[in-house]
Amino acid sequence: CGFGGTFNLKFPVVAGGMAGSKLADVRATGAPTLVSTDVSCLTHLERASGGEMPEALSIAELLARALPE
Fold first, then answer.
1. Domain assignment of residue 13, yes or no
2. Contact 55, 31 (CB under 8 A)
3. Cβ pair 48, 28 in contact under 8 A
4. Into how many domains does the chain fold?
5. What pTM, to 2 d.p., does this model score?
6. What single DSSP character describes residue 24?
7. Is residue 1 one of the residues assigned to a domain?
């Protein structure tokens, strides 16, 4: 996704390009929700998107939604 610990701090232009490419792939699916096991990637993509991406959930959030109340 382009985050990778300090990668995005050391190489912000490359990290931004990687996020942009990943966001294009996400948008192309038309899926209403993006689920990932990597919360740092979700945060990176959300920031890079400027609010223009599907709902983003960690796998833990998705599983929590599936639990009975």
1. yes
2. no
3. no
4. 1
5. 0.83
6. H
7. no
The residue range of the domain holding 29 is 7-66
Q: Is residue 18 part of a domain?
A: yes
Place of tokens 């990637």: 41
Q: Are 48 and 23 in contact (CB under 8 A)?
A: yes
pLDDT tens by residue, 10-60: 999 999 999 999 999 999 999 999 999 999 999 999 999 998 899 999 999
Cα→Cα distances 16→19, 22, 63, 66, Å: 5, 10, 29, 33
Does residue 54 contact residue 35 with C-beta atoms inside 8 Å? Answer: no
Query: Token pair for residue 4?
Result: 């990778």
Helices of type H across 1-69: 7-10, 12-29, 39-49, 59-66
Residue 15 inside a domain? The answer is yes
Contacts 24+ apart (CB under 8 A), 18-25: 19/44, 19/45, 19/48, 19/49, 20/48, 23/48, 23/49, 23/53
